[in-house]
Specification:
heterodimer; A: alpha/beta; 8-stranded mixed β-sheet; globular; B: alpha/beta; two-stranded antiparallel sheet; 10 helices; 14 strands; 32% helix; 16% strand
């Protein structure tokens, strides 16, 4: 686990209450859920579409559900989780608004992490006339799962459009918290939000 | 390298305590045939029960002799180093009550009359099977299973176990199953039953006295069933429009490969399976409904008593027990806040995929089993 990964895991762990019920959307190999279970005694489920992710999560002892997030979260009842986490997955979703709305429905609070397209290294590469490849966006343009990359400002605008009230934000670069000019200096953003209503 | 459980032999258990069935009928004494693989540990905490599907039986793994050409029906899943590891677990396979492979069923002799039960054998349900399986567990001194697993109708029994005896199941592995048959499924079963019931050799179920068996009916039932256990794709890739004859014969004998295959499967089955057992098994499928027609509420309400941890697996091309049906089970378990893992295995073989050796499918079961303490 890289330092940057550890940092956003730690941030999420610090934000959530112990023994809470957590749904991790796009849980990958189950590393975050395992970390939260060990550090915060959480319970809950991971949702993952890839077979490799499901196998790895299953091996870790995670409750993992092989489902496609694009189909929505209709197997989950309204307000059935304390936190719904979408870690490094938002940018790969087709129905971006839909998943945020579903997170607000199913969870008391939502937590989203995503690579900041406004990170200075990305901006420099675009200025130089190339699609960016950086720590948090390590893919070539022709071979990437990412279809909806955004900046911090873009995301915050979408939050207000879908009725998500941002409670907390942490911006990270090189495994450290960024406090100055986050939309320029941060490579990864972590948000915690709840429904405005 | 995963191995085989080797040479196995069947065992019999006799039960004198009458069993009152869901229908109200009472069976006053019965035998159950079973096989075991691996060693039961000293605190009897490593037992796993395998529940079989429509045409399955107690011979789950291993061979009966060195010359035995076949193996148990789930030999690829169960054995030393296999997903259900007999080096760690004590595995029990049994033939369900009403079966035709050694447990008391319609073809067994009723001790009261001295004749085969035939049409007088009562209809058994999934719940009745679970009761009889629990009695076998009692006999073996097993108060709680580490895991119970089964596919298709076997998966329904696993689900029923988790409801009937929550304290006796730590892990429930429900594979290619459904929380109840759809109208389409019941319809297929009814056509199959009708093929048997209308065979002149059926004699109202008492064909044993006539030294015959309703081969034609059973054969048709199996042919129909077989079509529904496979996907259109796998039939297409395996048989397509390949012909056995040189061009069309303009008659009704076997011409296409698929016809030959189905007839062969039907003939084989008709010689080895009991028609009355087939009727009973399909009826048990039709009746299974944990909600009892909604009398206990929704499926979520019905599954509330279940405390086991669940692994639910479906197969993408299974149209008889589709992934959507497995998701209904998962949704109900989520509503109850239960520990559940769900996987949808991409596989071309339709319903029968649950019997196949697929790396992802078997990897899942193996990975899941690593959390099941012996």
């Amino acid at each position: 686990m890289s330092a940057a990964v550890r940092h956003d895991f730690q941030t999420i762990a610090e934000w959530i209450n112990p023994a809470s019920r957590v749904l991790d959307l796009g849980c990958g190999d189950g590393a975050l859920l395992t970390y939260l279970q060990e550090s915060r005694s959480t319970t809950g489920y991971g949702v993952e579409i890839t077979s490799d992710g499901v196998l790895a999560s299953c091996k870790r002892g995670i409750n993992v559900l092989q489902m496609n997030l694009e189909d929505g979260l209709n197997v989950f009842e309204t307000s059935s989780f304390d936190y719904v986490i979408l870690s490094r997955t938002l940018q790969a979703m087709h129905n971006t608004e839909g998943i945020l709305q579903e997170m607000l429905r199913v969870g008391r609070q939502g937590i989203v992490t995503f690579p900041n397209f406004g990170y200075w290294k990305n901006r420099l590469q675009v200025l130089a006339g190339r699609m960016p490849v950086s720590e948090e966006i390590p893919y070539q343009w022709f071979d990437t799962p990412n279809i909806h990359l955004c900046t911090l400002d873009d995301f915050e605008e979408l939050c207000s459009e879908v009725g998500a009230h941002v409670l907390q934000r942490s911006v990270i670069a090189n495994g450290k918290e960024v406090r100055v000019l986050p939309n320029l200096l941060g490579s990864l953003a972590v948000y915690r939000f709840e429904s405005e209503a | 390298m995963p191995g085989s459980v080797g040479i196995v032999c069947s065992q019999f258990a006799h039960f004198d305590e009458p069993l009152t069935l869901r229908s109200g009928a009472v069976i006053h004494g019965y035998d159950l045939v079973y096989e075991t693989y691996g060693q039961l540990n000293s605190d009897k905490s490593n037992a796993i029960l395998i529940c079989h599907a429509l045409s399955g039986n107690h011979h789950v793994a291993g061979k009966y002799s060195a010359e035995d050409k076949g193996s148990g029906w789930w030999d690829n899943m169960i054995g030393p180093g296999k997903p259900i590891d007999t080096d760690k677990f004590f595995v029990i396979g049994m033939n369900n009550l009403g079966g035709c492979h050694g447990s008391t069923g319609p073809s067994s002799v009723n001790p009261v009359t001295g004749k085969p039960w035939g049409s007088s054998f009562p209809v058994v349900t999934v719940e009745d099977w679970v009761e009889s399986q629990a009695r076998l567990a009692d006999l073996l001194g097993i108060t709680q299973f580490a895991a119970i697993l089964g596919g298709s109708l076997g998966g329904m029994q696993v689900l029923q176990w988790s409801i009937s005896y929550p304290d006796r199941v730590r892990h429930a592995l429900v594979i290619a199953a459904a929380p109840g048959l759809t109208a389409q499924n019941i319809a297929f079963n009814d056509v199959a039953r009708n093929a048997i019931l209308t065979d002149p050799d059926f004699h109202g179920g008492d064909f044993y006295a006539h030294q015959t068996r309703p081969r034609r009916g059973l054969r048709l039932a199996r042919m129909l069933g077989h079509i529904t256990y496979l996907s259109d794709d796998v039939m297409g890739s395996k048989f397509g429009r390949i012909m056995r004859t040189e061009g069309f014969q303009y008659g009704f004998d076997v011409e296409f490969e698929i016809e030959s295959y189905l007839r062969y499967q039907g003939d084989k089955f008709a010689e080895s399976f009991d028609a009355n057992t087939y009727l009973l098994m399909t009826k048990a499928l039709d009746y299974f409904d944990p909600t009892h027609h909604g009398r206990v509420g929704t499926l979520s309400d019905a599954l509330k008593p279940a405390t086991a941890e669940f692994l639910v697996i479906s197969f993408t091309t299974d149209w008889r027990f589709s992934p959507g049906r497995s998701k209904e089970i998962v949704k109900a378990l989520l509503d109850c806040g239960r520990d559940v893992t769900y996987a949808e295995v991409t596989h071309g073989h339709g319903h029968d995929a649950f019997l196949m050796d697929d790396p992802y499918y078997h990897g899942l079961v193996a990975n899941y089993m690593s959390r099941v303490a012996p």
